[in-house]
TrEMBL record:
InterPro entries: ArsR-like_HTH, HTH_ArsR_DNA-bd_dom, HTH_MetalResp_TranReg, SdpR-like_repress, WH-like_DNA-bd_sf, WH_DNA-bd_sf. Keywords: DNA-binding, Transcription, Transcription regulation. Transmembrane segments: none annotated. It holds the Pfam family HTH_5. It comes from the Bacteria. The keyword Transmembrane helix does not apply. It comes from Fictibacillus norfolkensis. Residues 1-89 form the HTH arsR-type domain. This is Winged helix-turn-helix transcriptional regulator.
């Protein structure tokens, strides 16, 4: 995972909304698309960027692909973030 790719993926409000949806449950691309006023190829594009940044995982079950959060990457991002909030004592 590249921090740059993760932050690029997180910079888009639609992708942040997708992550919020996936926080609740794993979903198919069609289920995700039903929450937005956009074409399915646009949703697929956002999912591709999130997957490339390792923020989501996918798993094929029969004819459907289910998307879920990759919480490991979020833990890595938070660990990086907290390096700026804690001050080492000398």
């Amino acid at each position: 995972m590249s921090l740059n790719e993760a932050f690029k993926a997180l910079s888009d409000p639609t992708r942040r909304q997708i992550l919020t949806l996936l926080k609740e449950d794993e979903l198919t691309a069609g289920e995700i698309a039903s929450h937005f006023d956009m074409q399915k190829p646009s949703v697929s594009h956002h999912l591709k960027i999130l997957k490339h940044a390792s923020l989501i995982d996918d798993e094929r079950r029969g004819q459907h692909i289910y998307y879920s959060l990759n919480t490991t990457v979020f833990h890595e991002l938070m660990s990086w973030y907290f390096t700026f909030t804690t001050k080492e004592e000398k």
